[in-house]
Amino acid sequence: MLDDDASGKWMASIPAWYREDADVPPKFFLSHSINWWRMRNFKIIMYRPYVIRLALQSRGGSEAEPSPSDARIAYDRCLAAAKESIASISSFWDAQNHTLMAAWYTLYFLFQASLIPCVCLRNGPTLPQAADWRNQIQTTLQTISKMKIINPKAQECYDVVEKLCGQFIQNAGASSTPIAGIDYPTEESPQTQISNVYAMMWPSVNAPEVDMMMQDGIWSDFLGEELSQSVHAQPDAAE
Fold this sequence. Notes:
By secondary structure, the protein is an all-alpha fold. The protein has one domain (about 1-239). Helix content is about 60%, strand content about 0%.
């Protein structure tokens, strides 16, 4: 895949002292982390059309199987990049100094990553991966909550994630025993979900631009009954 060639060359070009597993001096912790968060964010942006399509196809209660096999690879890579981002950013926030700059970068990358398990869980709460998606969302909310005192925008992001998935994640607040969230897909139509998610993923795009970009293959494929047969469309155009 092109991703393997491009990202592989990029990672190979990074000196050993700055690779992801390198032990960098404290003054480089943030810049070093941003380097890898940005790489995963790029993968999320590149592959998320496949995730959105598959999430909507899974609304019937069984996991849709993408075709061709490259679509499955893209789907898995996006989910993996989101999960790794959430874990990395949350660990960073728990371990490092809390500065305004760090709060801005962590919130930016964490919120975008969290939308992936949010979309998946809302449409497939009974799938085998649902427990993992719930954990990722809970971790996201806990980390964002810790940022509120430094970054005022954290509250807005928290509210969005909680609104999207509050009913779908475990709620231990009212009881000592966690209670599983609802186990049926959201009642929102695919069209409504696309509009809402699109606005969150590309907040700077105005309405006319949305209409124009929605004509690209992957977005138009979401609309109508042909959704489940749209596996051969070309989602690359959406990005």
